[in-house]
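Weekend entry, working from home. Most of the wet-lab plans are on hold until the incubator is repaired, so I used the time to fold the two sequences that have been sitting in the queue since the last round of cloning. Logging both here for the record. First:
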Amino acid sequence: MTVRNFLRALLWAAALAAGSQAHAQATRTWVSGVGDDANPCSRTAPCKTFAGAISKTATGGEIDTLDPGGFGSVTITKSITIANDGMGTAGILAVGTSGITINAPAGSTVYLRNLIIDGGPTGSSSPSGVHVVSGDVHIDNSVIRGFTGSPGAGILVSANTNASRLYVTNTKIYGNTIGVSSTATVSSPIAIVDTVIDKNSDYGILGETAFSVFSLHRSEVTGTAVGISAPAPAKVSSYGTNLITGVAPGTTLSPAGLR
């Protein structure tokens, strides 16, 4: 190989490497209220929205907030964490759309932490705060409010292909048409712990299928005429540490009699 060809090969290899790095996804990215989605979403050059950051975040990676802001609705199709840890309010204002839609492959896990998900002003017709189509989802220390479109659920689980699990901890779900709703047609248990589901206009918890399986621990379902409606074959387990008002006919709490 001549010297010229050798140098040309080195330059070509360097160009390929640079291109590969430019398109590589980071394991950790950042968003900021003053960011720009044209940025690489690094700490020093953050993105503006969760949707802008997710395409630049590797599967199993994490999107963090650098400062308070409204970071927009997002669709999640892989394992990922979206977290706001001590940086003020991290909001999603979803007007006429769902706040977060999760449709990830079987075996995927999604973590949502310290977020405020808002359906917008009266008349916005926003359908759901978090819509779980597929994937295991953990929602912690968050607020979900103001979703009054159709179905108007703070959280909706509609899994129909892949088994899913939902864990809700230390969260407030209020001012929606339904607090937590399940229309799942495959195994999709829902665990609700240390959570307040309050003043949702129609139902606090609504289970519509045999795969609507709820467990409640140290939680409140209040401020709604029908706190829980989950007629058999749906199942609700309440472990005696909950405050529940308005259980619909046909709904059985197990163990029997416990609230």
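Second, folded right after the first finished:
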Amino acid sequence: MKRHIIILLFLLIATLGLYGKDKIGTEGRINGVDNFYKKTRFIMTKLERRIYKHLADDVERQNFIKDFWDKRDPTPDNFVNEAKQIYAERIAYANRWFSEGKGKNTGWDSERGRILLQLGIPDRREFGELDITNSGLGRGRGSLVTTKRLPMERWFYFRFQLYLVFTDVNSLGNFKLTRIPAQLLTAVDLAKMSILYPSKGNSKYQLTFKSSVKKGNIILKIPTKKISFEKKSEKMEARFSIKIYVYKKFRKYDVINTKRVLENVTDSILSAKYVYLKIPLRYSEKGKYRFDIIVEDTIGQSKYRNFLKYKIR
């Protein structure tokens, strides 16, 4: 049991980047591109981290950066990438309020700042003091029990059912997580999988799906209740825009752009638990392929991402 708890804490620390610094490739220099990685690694998926560290030069890195924000752009048809804009606003907010004596423009690298970058502004934020006698803080070996009260913040993320407590343990303005709840890892994973910019559609129809490969096709399994349908004449219709980034040996191999329309939707489809979409694979070269799949329900204006590995023998 103790071993499982240690593993869970290690995964949380690694995911959140609360301690230590990530190594940035093998080039060993700090430039504008690597500054991008330092600040965005908190919202990168595991696949994106591995791809980034396999990039050969600045040209490939710049192409990666473009794809990185394109994948998160909720409205690619206009000139503004709202996801990139919102992330910049989160960094600016963290730098203003959470610098914690490290210096100007470093608030994003504090514990509060990193959580903010990953999960956004909390739905509710409370300020107060924590009695460390009741909390157990300060009860280390050989220490005296004290009634000292410490500055504290409570953050609530209702959509993740998450409650966080930050405490200024040393009364120096450096706030740390009092505890790391297990739900935090789940919330971070959900935030990475969904599109950063919130959907403008009905929250009831927040798209999700699972993916697999069968008989030379990528199969998308979408819960019917998460699909937005539109009435066309006497029938119902659903529309999807699909973009799949294909990687081989962690290098971009292909990009698939396609659309799918469910026309003349019958009652049997509406009552089914899932809808299945099929995208043919067009590769014969042997090797391991990784797919970064982004699907948009164009009626409900809801997007979701999923990842898939497949080996052609």
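Plan for Monday: verify the second prediction. The chain has three domains: 2-117, 120-193, 203-312.
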